[in-house]
Amino acid sequence: MKIIKLSILFLFIFWLNAQSVVNQFRVPIYLTPSITLGYDSNFLRLSEIDKTNASSEPSMLGDSKTFDSEIIRPELKLQYSPVFSTKHETNFIINLASAVFGQSKNKSYSSYFIRFEQHLGPYQWLKIGYSLQPELLLRYYEDRDLISTQLLPCTFSNETIYISYSYPILKKTWLRLKGKKNNQYYNENFTEFDTDIFSGEIRLTTSYFRKNKFTIFFENGIGTNISYNTGLITSRLDRSNKYIQFGGLWVYYPSKFLKSAILYFTNNQRTYLGEDIHDPLHGGREHEDIQIQIRLQKKLVPNFEVELRGKFRTRKVFSEFEWVEELKSFNRYEFSMKISYSTHLNLLY
Question: For the whole model, what pTM was predicted?
């Protein structure tokens, strides 16, 4: 009889623990669908020479008839936060998005992103992320491995995995360390550009000043041309590169009207490592890529938010050949408005 009572007590305790574990997973799934309407002044990143040449060789634009395009970006964000601890937050975040260019069906693309976040203490997080853009159109080029001069779409997959760790160093100030690997693999006509990129980043952020948050960062990376010398004629040239990137972010939180105002700046300086005299496009070439972005966010009504965004990008190329500098430099403007809605689903209850 005593054994039966002990067995019942054990099963009851086990059932309570099992219910407790199950309840940790019974939390809402937060959804944020959004739609972005935008305009890109130079969506193929054409130089001024390219634009002039396109007037006599329209195939450079592929299925587009203009240099600019309107853009629609639908997006869905899902966040699931099981309660493993009452002190530390755990998040699983998934983003599904696509970009539809009004002037070019071929330029349109989809993107997928997933991130795991674990809070470890005040201003202390461990994050692991993965993103994939399976097919991005870069431009239309000649395949130098073929005799034909027909322009073909140059597309590539963009895959990134990263891990980051942040920890506090001063009052309301924290440091983040991040390691990243990025794979850029091209379609069968342009595999000579396949590149694996490894980089490390250090980022310092402070919210010490009331209504303000400041961030500065520095990143160093090297891209290895993994298809170099693999047999094709065009693979005899090394397109490996190294780069440094630095920038900053200023977020201002006004008490009225706007939710936040954001100013973002980056400067990417890249150097190609190949020195082959038969590759003037890359040999000894450097470029400086500057981007400036302004974002204004406002909550319209509960659960609805709007964001206005303006972005300017300019790339200046430095080479011993003036025609290379003119061919690879470009300017680009983007303007957009994003409307998002926040809600949740109790699917697990």
Answer: 0.88
Instruction: Please count the structural domains in the chain.
Output: 1
DSSP-derived 3-state class of residue 117: strand
Domain housing 23: 2-345
Among residues 118, 189, 180, 185, the alpha carbon closest in space to that of 150 is found at 189
pLDDT at 84 over 70: yes
Which tokens go with 138? 């870069």
Query: Alpha-carbon distance 32 to 206, whole Å?
Result: 27
Residue 329, number of CB atoms within 10 A of its CB: 18
Q: Which residue has the higher pLDDT, 52 or 147?
A: 52
| Residue carrying the six token digits 């450079």 | 60
Q: CA distances (Å), 106 to each of 61, 63, 208, 266, in order?
A: 10, 7, 46, 28
Residues 13-71: tens digit of each pLDDT: 544 454 455 666 678 889 999 999 999 999 999 999 999 888 888 888 989 999 999 99
| Residue 215 and residue 205 in contact, taking contact as beta carbons nearer than 8 Å | yes
Tokens of 208: 């010490």
Average pLDDT, the chain: 88
DSSP 8-class letter at 28:
P
Whose tokens are 């240099």? That residue is 67
* Strands (DSSP E) found in the chain: 29-40, 69-80, 90-101, 104-121, 124-142, 151-170, 173-186, 195-206, 212-225, 241-252, 260-272, 286-299, 304-318, 330-341, 343-345
The CATH number of the domain holding residue 296 is 2.40.160.40
